């Protein structure tokens, strides 16, 4: 067999050339592919590296909120009036919820655990979380048994988490409710308005808790923990400590507050044996020389814990339905015809304006007549010859008809001057007390009457103003504050509940005229309408008031007083809504309060009360 060696070499060369070409093509493809891979890697590492690092950091870090303790509120002797207690809450996190079609399992499981929560409320919380894309509170302050069940069912409840928080406890319950107010869970509006709030927070809704909410809140902290892919804890990465809220010291004397509330409660128990509607009333004790509020009672009251502690929240509906409106702060927001408690301030005005002198007298024969209209004294047959001191002591209406509107040729103050001086004593405007709401009272005028009723102002309207009837209205706090100005003699102090700066303004009444008014109020205790207080060991001065309500036979009972007489330190003001007569019904309650103060030797220094 002849083999052509040259042909073999040629064929081999041909195959070798083809292979080389294939190799070259493959090399080019590999080169392009590697370039793309390297380029993509560089892009991911250089251009998107920070993004991936952030995602990795998010995935491996878990933050837990450390709730900031709300500031403690103390009375004037540093007695704690509130407490913070631990709470475990249930929160929905929308980003971790399953798809909607898998939601029923969570609903059923939660409904089986939260047996006191209607299923529709659970559904509403989940829907709200999805809609707002924000963490949503499902249940606050759940029980220990519920916590254990939630922990046991954790894998079946994606998007449902336990969270720690603090809630308020109010040891003084009803007696301080209208001063302290209460806290309750944060609202959606508050979350939108304040970025530092979280869904497990509570905020002040009434009283001091609301007025000073921002100061009391503090700043939350957190702990950061590194976790692995399965969610198991590995390393504690650090803690940012929570900053507690600011503590507050009130001017309130807690023991005095509790004592006065007890007086109302005892009286109400006796009343309930006769009639079912509760006593409705106010008691206020002020420091004459600063405006500090030592006690402020509005009755009936409510338990602040009902709103702050979820275990009691089912009782809130009952509070809203109770007769007597216990949520209403009658001390600051109640506006009432003042009755004769207006007389000391109009007497001071008349003396200052020269309408009367300390020696001016009027003969009281039982009332006066203007045309067909009669304006009577409370005492049948009248009080006889009366000067300003006797007029205050015996509450002689005829004398104050003369002061206000004039009589027998004597010009009175007139409505404009009378209301001008009442404003000097703080009537017709908010006192400025540091509570969320306050009524301003009302001082009528001819312009107001014409606009409101279409009727002109008559002399009879001025006479009614002179004895605290007609359309004039005042709050118990206004009456107490104005009484403090008469007692102190020079300044009207702004009532306040937080120890600190003092705000005052001059009343611009000459001292000798203030003294005349004080003497008249002292006579009311020694020989007049409040003479049942003459036996007190502490000498006091006061003015009773019995204010008619519209055209009815019902009356409000007033008594406002100050003591000790020679060196005044405190004001005690009482209002009993539809409570009868000032001398019969309000004075005995004031007597109990003054005895409490006197027996404890608290009259020497106001800062000891």
TrEMBL record:
One of its GO terms (molecular function) is penicillin binding. This is Penicillin-binding protein 2. Keywords: Cell inner membrane, Cell membrane, Cell shape, Cell wall biogenesis/degradation, Hydrolase, Membrane, Peptidoglycan synthesis, Protease, Transmembrane, Transmembrane helix. One of its GO terms (biological process) is cell wall organization. Residues 66-234 form the Penicillin-binding protein dimerisation domain. Residues 281-593 form the Penicillin-binding protein transpeptidase domain. It comes from Candidatus Andersenbacteria bacterium RIFCSPHIGHO2_12_FULL_45_11. GO terms for cellular component: plasma membrane. It is a single-pass membrane protein. It is found in: Cell membrane; Membrane. PANTHER family: PEPTIDOGLYCAN D,D-TRANSPEPTIDASE (PTHR30627), PEPTIDOGLYCAN D,D-TRANSPEPTIDASE MRDA (PTHR30627:SF2). The chain crosses the membrane at residues 23-43. InterPro entries: Beta-lactam/transpept, Beta-lactam/transpept-like, PBP_dimer, PBP_dimer_sf, PCN-bd_Tpept, Penicillin-binding_protein_2. The keyword Cell inner membrane applies.
